[in-house]
Structures are given as structure tokens and as C-alpha cells.
Amino acid sequence: MRLEILNSGYHPGTKLLFAVIRLFSGQPVPDAAKLVFYRPDFYGARARNLTHEAMRGPSAWSVGDRELMAAYVSKVNDSAFCIGAHTATASQAYQDGAKVQAVLADLQSAPIEEPLRATLRMLGKLTAEGSVSADDMREVLSAGASAQQIEDALAVCLAFNTTDRLADAFGFVVLSPEGFEAGAKYLLKRGYR
Amino acid sequence: MIQGRTAEDAQGTVAGEDKGRAAYRALLDRVLAREGTASAQQRARAFSNEGLPPPLDALIDKVATRPAQVTDADFATAKASGFSEEQLFELVICAAVGQSARLYETGLAALGEATASGEAG
Questions:
Q1: Interface pTM (ipTM) of the complex?
Q2: Taking the CB of residue B94, how many other CB atoms lie within 10 A of it?
Q3: Mutating which of A74, A137, A146 best tests the B interface, going by the most B Cβ atoms within 10 A?
Q4: Is A3 helix (H, G, I), strand (E, B) or coil?
Q5: By the CB < 8 Å criterion, does A161 face chain B?
């Protein structure tokens, strides 16, 4: 990563934890995990809490739907690490990698329900252009998403616009496909907390 | 029965919503209002992507608006101008959280407008 403190500035206990993660996963510790363990009192502890609530807290969206939103927002931001991580996690959650690939390739023609399609379109516009209108929101509501679902989707968008920026700014190393699969398995078992 | 279930669902939704919003407020409060190695003023300026001196402003603007274009040189230049790694860690986080918070608030405001006018109409 671009800051040396994020590569080597960890307490002995945290270094030990990283060694345990490497041992059990057989993979390097993802930079996303390293970031939230660096001075967790400043960012990591609260960011994990916020992300866990958005991704695993109560919602009418499934875990797969929310992981797909994370992957889609990351695609709009062109954030390679997060695209890889959340494509893998959404694919495992749905047990349908083809569906996730179809959404990322062409949202319009992808085989998903209309409320999810309209929600992803709105998140993409907000992320790319920095603005959405009440009319944009009415379209999502007309497609069948509830106001609460839109609010839940905005929380996912908040979490991943933040993470995407940090991944690209700090220079997270993109993992191998096996590394992303191992990370996805962990996120589906344990969440973000 | 139906009414009871509705009330229960509504309560569950409200509790979930509160936890998410509380987590959001806690993150903002920590990065902006509590102690850091960068001053509170610098962190507020990174958060709003406004009023920072060059060359730091270039790095922070990229984090906020085109993060995929951040380079090693952006960090090297910011460090050479006197910012420590600890300060840059905090300021980059503030920039990322700030931009994302603006998008979030924009989305919530548009949703509020859409649902308010929907109820009136």
C-alpha cells in the first residue's frame, strides 16, 4: 500500500492475528482487512460497524443483492480490488456467478428483478454524477422498490463509495481469484464486524 | 393479528434504521470531531474537499472525485510538503468519507422529496 504504516505499522498482537489469518485461509491478508486494523479507533472500528449494518443488518434486500450493489458501485468507481472482492461475494451468496457477471456487463439486459435493476441504476447515477433527483427516486419506487429498500441501498452505496476510494487511494493489492474466493467465504460466514 | 404483525415489522425496521444511522453518525463524529494527528480544521477541509493548500489539495480532490487516478507521486508530493503518513492516513479517510456522505445525503434528500410529494399527491 502507498503508506508504509499500512504495510508494517501494526502492533505485535495484530501481526499475530494476520499470521493466523494467513495460516487458516492459505492466502495473504487482504489490504481491506489491514486497513481496518490500522489504528482501528480512528476509522476501522466504526467503518466495520457501519458496513456490517448496511450489508448484514435487517433489510428486505438479500445478502446477495447487497453484495451485488457493492460490486456494481465499485464497477462504476472502477475500483479493481472492490470489484473483485464483491463480485466473488455476490456470486457465492447467489450461487450464481453468471447473474453477477451479466449485471456488471449490461445492467439493462441482466436477468434480475425490476426493483433491483432500477435501484442499481439509481446507485450508479448517484455514484457517477454525484446527484439524483426526486424523479429518479420515483422511478425506483414505481419499479417496485420500497422507500425503506432505497434507504438500505443508499447505506450500501455510502459504505462502498468510502471503501472504493480508500482502496484506490491507498493502493490495495488486487488478490488472485483464489484470494477473492477465500475473502468472500469469510465475509459470508462472519460479515464485516 | 395483522395490525400486531405490522407494528412488529415497523419496530424492527426502525431499530435497524437507527443502528445504521447511528453507525454513520459515530464515524463522522470520530473522524471530524475527536483527536487526530491532523488538526480538526485540516480534517474538516479534507472532508469537504475545500480550502486545503497545494499540493495536498490535489491528492484530496483525487480521492474525492477520481480515486482510481491517485498515484504514488501524489503521496510523495504530499509527504514532501510536510505531512506525515499518520496525517495523510487521516486526511485521505476524511476525504473518502466526506464525498460518500455527500452522496448519501443527496440520495436521502431526493428520496424524502419523492415520498413527501407522493403522500401529498
A1: 0.97
A2: 27
A3: A137
A4: coil
A5: yes
